[in-house]
Sequence to fold (316 residues):
Amino acid sequence: MAHTINKPLVGISSCVLGEKVRYDGGHKRSAFVTDSLADFVRFVPACPEMGIGMPVPRPTIHIREIDEQQRLTDSRDANLDHTDKMQAFFSARLPQLSKLDGYVLAAKSPSCGMERIKVYSDKGELLHRKGQGLFVQLLKQQFPDLPMEEDGRLNDEGLRESFITRLFAYHDFRQQVTEQLSTGALVGFHSQYKMLVMAYNPQAYQALGRLVAGAKGQEEVTARQYLTLMMHALSKPTNRRKHTNVLMHFQGYFKKQLDKADKQELSEQIDKYRRGYLPLMAPVTLLRHHLKNHPNSYLQQQRYLQPYPEALGLRG
Fold:
């Protein structure tokens, strides 16, 4: 099942692509990003700190809490404030940012870090480590549903698959629903993604179904709500138990089509996956085989069978 011809458009911190733009003249090249993901998406690189005119190398910067507002300043001198320039840089890029399907960010950066960023007082005292980079704050305010992940967190298998799943789902949603909004488009999209959402969050699967059922006459509002709920549902890594539940749903459709030996083989594959002896690709590949021999239009359209390019190797 091929994805749309147009590859997803992914914003990315330039240093994660290996560009030497960090404050110390270094980079944070991610092997997964450059050696694997790069073949399946179109990257839009940017270094916000260079975007506001800072050189390489450059003085370090901090997030400071001043008058109950977070400001981006020089780490040694709070009077050297870069906040307004960063906001202007972000605003100038809005037309480009609005076309993105996801964003890969640089961890620990006071501009691009998603979490655990140090926040200082106006006098330079450490207040806490619960901040976000200023560019990320602006990105989340403007595009709260946009799939985002940090370079370091992409080393975690569950987080990596969750992000890639969201990235391609977001891309599909924009092309299938946002660009041709109608009740039919919402129903069609939901029909494709039912099993995938179920594999991550069965409760959200039910809630999304109720949303779509009441979409007629309020498609725009429903589409926004649907995307928000779906991205939230896919945002946490899933597990073997939930996948097994979905695999058994697929299995149920073959009760009358498969002979005894094929049923036994499929049951064994699903059980071996459940117990950790096989990767997910094993039962999924067998399901695809049976679908070729016993076509079922509803099952064949399920993104669960291939939510992203198989060559990424995330189910292996």
Observations:
- The longest strand covers residues 61-66.
- Strands lie at 9-13, 42-46, 61-66, 69-74, 102-105, 117-121, 126-131, 148-150.
- The chain has a mean pLDDT of 96.
- The chain has twelve helices and eight strands.
